[in-house]
Amino acid sequence: MKKKLLLPATCLLAIAAVLGYQNWAPQKIQISSFKFEKTIQPRPLAEYEPMFGVAVSEQVLFRESGIELVRAMLAAKAKVYIFMTAGFKEQVEELFTEKKPFKADELKSITRVELEHESPWLRDFFPIPVLRAYPFIPPTPSFVDFVYRDGSSYDDAAIHQFALAINSSVEHLPIVMDGGNFMTNGETCIVSEEMSDDPESNRPKDPNFSISDHVADIFQLALGCRKTRVVSQIPHPHVDMFLKFVNRNTILVNEIQDRAMDLLDDADPDSKVKIPKIKSELDRIAKDLSKTFRVVRVPMPLPVYDIFFTYANSVIVNDTVIIPSYKNPDPSRGTYPDQHFYASYEEEVRKAYQEVGLKTVFLKADDLIKDGGAFHCVTFHLPDLEAIVPESSHLAAKPKP
Length: 401
Fold this sequence. Notes:
Radius of gyration: 22 Å
Strand content: 15-25%
CATH superfamily of the largest domain: L-arginine/glycine Amidinotransferase, Chain A
Number of helices: 12
Shape: globular
Distance between the termini: 60 Å
Number of strands: 20
Number of domains: 2
CATH topology of the largest domain: L-arginine/glycine Amidinotransferase, Chain A
CATH class of the largest domain: Alpha Beta
């Protein structure tokens, strides 16, 4: 049932959009008689950079491995924010008071935030964290928000409510794009063609204007992307299902291995047609990215029964990466042709992550993946800008005498 956004939230969206527009001009700042020598230009924050917290929907707590996911993030020295709707509040309170899944010291780093939303896929309806600093003010997280058109105005308004709580700013862009369709190393931004102009925007429409023709310019101005790469003919609508930056120069790309392809005879008829195409698309993308980055191929289980298995949809929390593990997501559909390879797949994936200095934790994600995502999809990063920005650069600019 379609919900109407409450008036306060509507006003908040409008105010945030106006403030965002005014504040994001990449020009030299002048205040009164001060002239500033430099500014810290905005740039998107990479997932592998330090973070002080991670947010999840309360719905995740009631999913397979949900409690273990929160514990793993706490162990990685991150605070965990649990977004709790009015409809789930009673269930969450019962979970915490009766089942008591967390220890006393863990509870100190867990904050429950009452925040209306519908979807558990925070990555998609929450925005892109961006480094932006102002004169005389310690850096704080800023966000660039896109339009999330998945049926709920609450999801689109959620970031504006949360940003007020942590004293952060939000710029809202009239572009329809899910957050899972964005990957960055802090300089280069990778997106797919799965974005469009917002048809419900009240700005004047120009029939000759196309978002796709100006993606690089828009992302440079709004997000600070030094370069934007648009991936076409993709194997999945969201790039975070098959790509993963693990440091500035290294990116993981899924690979359907030849030993798995040899088992196609045991796949369902529809998968026999789709899998070779997906493999070809992944190989082409990896080859193209290898011109710029160090590409490491990581095994991907055969995508059968419309389940897109992936180890790239992990979540990096400081020095730890939490990786989805699979066993039998949907037994009613039959067996998985390469299931006996899963253990060796995980060992290869473990080595790939450990090679760049990350500790690895595998958690079951069968119930999430059959719904279309994994751990990266249900989490949202809150970067630790005090760790990212050196103390000497704490101010955006220093006034001349």
